[in-house]
Amino acid sequence: MSTFAFLFKLTRYRIGLYLLNAIAWSLIYLAPIAPGWITKQFFDTLSGNAVYGFSVGALIALLIASALARVTMILFGFVTDVNFRFRVGSLLRRNMLSRILKEPGAKAIPCSPGEAISNFRDDVDQVEETVSWSVDSFGMTIFAAVSFYILYGISATMTLWVFLPLVLVVTIAQASTTLLQKFRAASREATSQVTGAISEMFSSVQSIQIASAEERVIARFRQLNDNRRQAMLKDKLLTQTLDSVFSNAVNIGTGFILLLAAQSMRDGSFTVGDFALFVYYLTFVTQFIQNFGKFLTYFKQSTVAKERLASLVQGAEETILTESHPLYLRGELPAPGMETDGAQGDSRGGTAARQAERNGAPSTAKEGPQAKGTAGANAVSGGPAAERAAGGPAVRPVGRHSSTSGKQGGIPLLEVDGLTYRYPETGRGIERISLRVPAGSFTVITGRIGSGKTTLVRTLLGLLPKDEGDIRWNGETIAKPGDFFVPPHSAYTPQVPRLYSDTLKNNILLGLEEDEARLEAAVYAAVLEPDIAALQHGMDTVIGPRGVKLSGGQAQRTAAARMFVREAELLVFDDLSSALDVDTERKLWERLYEHRPATCLVISHRKTALAHADTIIVLKDGRVEAEGTLEQLLESSEELRHLWNREDEG
Known about the structure:
Blueprint: H1 3-11, H2 15-30, H3 33-47, H4 56-102, H5 113-154, H6 156-175, H7 177-203, H8 205-210, H9 214-266, H10 272-312, H11 348-358, H12 368-381, E1 414-422, E2 429-437, E3 442-447, H13 453-460, E4 468-473, E5 476-477, H14 481-484, E6 490-493, H15 504-509, H16 516-525, H17 529-534, H18 552-564, E7 570-574, H19 582-594, E8 599-603, H20 607-612, E9 615-620, E10 623-628, H21 630-636, H22 638-649
Parallel strand pairs: 3-8, 3-9, 6-7, 7-8
Antiparallel strand pairs: 1-2, 1-4, 4-5, 9-10
């Protein structure tokens, strides 16, 4: 899609507001026509060459009235322009974010978060600026045409000298297209690298300190900033040089006009009023030429911005960026697409059913009342019996029963056949992996570093797009795993927890309506009670950006509590216990294993998890090396024995 077509589609988003904005600014730019004509009449009246019989007082009154009218129109123009610009920028950002959220979670953006922020901020601002200036160029062009007609009727030669610089401006702007785009692309890339480095440094403070790499990191950061300084200087220098050329071209033309005017006034063919009109219009024609040159510069730079925005949507049609959608800037926001359990009943069943229908799978929530009753019975029956010897509270299960039980010979809750994913950069990944996860089972995936464990669960959950293979839930094929494997079907805790600068409670709930019983159950299952008791404000403690106020183990268990509170049927853990001490890990697995209705799929190499496993799947080089119980694999699998013995050595 060409830059012109791209910008035109954006103007059509709110075409009524755009046209209103265009009319307002056209009137603003046409407004100087009246004061110029009044000024001519004023001086012609004083010199005795007046054509119309206006008095001096009347002309002054008209001049003041035209000035007030222009000020009023400028105020109205700013209101319409700000509203339109805001909507254009918001639409672009909304469409980009929507596309990113539809991408597989592990490949949502093709760059660092810092670079993506630069796209959302700088490139959208550039497009927004260009669209806004299109209105100015339209109004200025109308003014130029009208003023050209008026001035040409007075003196054709002088009028040509007034507008000659415009030809020079357009020629220079066209000739500098390649350099403009090259320097703008370089400056944007340099800015993205700096913002990306800032993001990475603040997210890796502990790693930098452990490696004693502070000086090297700072030196690298200085180098990136120096590269950005050079790129920005080139970009700004070229832009300012073009502005200077445009201004000087106008000034040279003005000099010729003054020389010609003096000669014409000497022979009487040019009145004082004519000269006043030329001088008055000359200011605005000069403005027009400079601003038209600026608009051409912005237009060229917006080509770079469009290409960078298109790269963020990773090969999707560029028309996605300009699709019309409501922004909900006024009135009530729409209800969230995913409803959650409230204290008075389960509203997730209907949502789960709708979601299952969209993904071609039956809804396990269709037996919602029965399942809810079962869960409630379990919670009640676990009342006195659930009181732990260590003083834990009576809690209800952190998951929910599936409608079928693979342990009793039914259809497995989750089946995977021939699942394959290869990373485009290396060609490595997972190859034709098949597994069965019975309902209510505790399945552990283990293997050496780089064996494909994380890639497997990411592909299974739709966070990476599978190349081959089938995924079935209760016997039904899942066409879009990324849409299906969300609560209440499944919940996932990644290797690196994603926490936010908010309270601990809000990080756990993450938008869910608070249910005290569910929250307590999740906190208990994640072994977080002693940590919360030690925090100054308990659950209301603000944990800082990325949970910086928490230790690694606390951050992992906070993410686990977030997963538990969603009461999903399938709980997926990616190396949750890596940041936990042995005692805390033991408590976590015991609490989860002791009284759980949920099915667990766990990535771990730790003995505590392996000992609790109903089934262990051993991966090696992206393939299933062995599968069975711990006792079976310790006898038959050299790979598992290696992992088990290495844990002993550790």
